[in-house]
Amino acid sequence: xxxxxxxxxxxxFGASNVVSEFDLSIDRGEFVSFLGPSGCGKTTVLRMIAGFxxxxxGTITVSGEDVTALSASRRxxxxxxxxxxxxxxxxxxxxxxxGLKVAGMDRQTIDxxxxxxxxxxxxxxxxxxxxxxxxxxxxxxxxxxRALAPSPKLLLLDEPLSALDAKIRVSLRDDIRRxxxxxxxxxxxxxxxxxxxxxxxxxxVVMHRGRxxxxxxxxxxYNRPATRFVADFVGTLNVFDAEVVAPGQLRxxxxxxxxxxxxxxxxxxxxxxxxxxxxxxxxxREGDALSIAGTVMMTSFLGSVIRxxxxxxxxxxxxxxFNQSGARIPAIGETAELWFSEDDLLVL
Length: 348
Ligand code: ADP
Ligand code: MG
Description:
ABC_transporter-like_ATP-bd; transport; binds magnesium ion; Putative spermidine/putrescine transport system ATP-binding protein; Mo/tungstate-bd_C_term_dom; 6-stranded mixed beta sheet; alpha+beta
């Protein structure tokens, strides 16, 4: 049975409809991310789950119990915000102890639990520091410990890494996932960063204008995007306007291709054919049967990857190749044949 269920959730602020027809089912222990651009409704959905905001319609169920009308304090949910939101006049351990005191636990139990939580986030040695004496990453660790201390049923993280430097962001991201697995706590993680969502989650909900465009495992989202929006938002994508010549036959990049996946369309339909930069290669690989020709405009050395920009019929197409021995950086102005497999072509 699903642990958390959102059934046809909608939210209006006055006349503006911010969330609509939002359905989601999360299993116990699952790690789910909400991914989408700023303003698409991620925080609003999270606040409805937490009980800070009441849905305009729809129901929220936790372990089979309808909690839609339940106040936030009775939902046993832990929250972490982008801004840390620690109590400035309390030390790290007092911050972590706060929820336990409110719950009326005895002193000994609180002390033991605070110790355990600070050790979980590797901050034992900074227990007596005040927030202003801690770095951003350390403050966010404390707020994670504070959220987890009362053993919530559900952990909600609203862009917890967005204010941090790149290196800290990655290490805290890995720690969040490790701790989540250790505790087995059901978690929702909000982010506008696709790499973050793909790397950390069991499943990703890609949100667009208050709706879930796709809910799937990271690889599925990347390899089989359900909509043009998902395909564009997640990763880099080369997009071609394509015309259906006949069912299963597509014309794009000044060439006609047999594409069985396009069999569901009618002659004359205008659709989109798209290829990821790594699906294209400057040499024919095993499985590559199709190609398009162009002219090399630019190459960029990105470390593990070399990216070439190729002009194809007036459109710039990105091709990524691994920086491995034998990789040849093409010369500007060179004519290039870009190979791909029909399996890698996204038809949207
Ligand atoms: P996200 O977290 O994805 O950036 P939000 O959920 O914060 O998006 O906001 C979604 C939309 O709802 C935005 O257009 C925002 O301006 C609007 N909104 C959020 N909260 C309120 C509110 N209390 N009153 C009116 N509009 C709001
Ligand atoms: Mg937000």
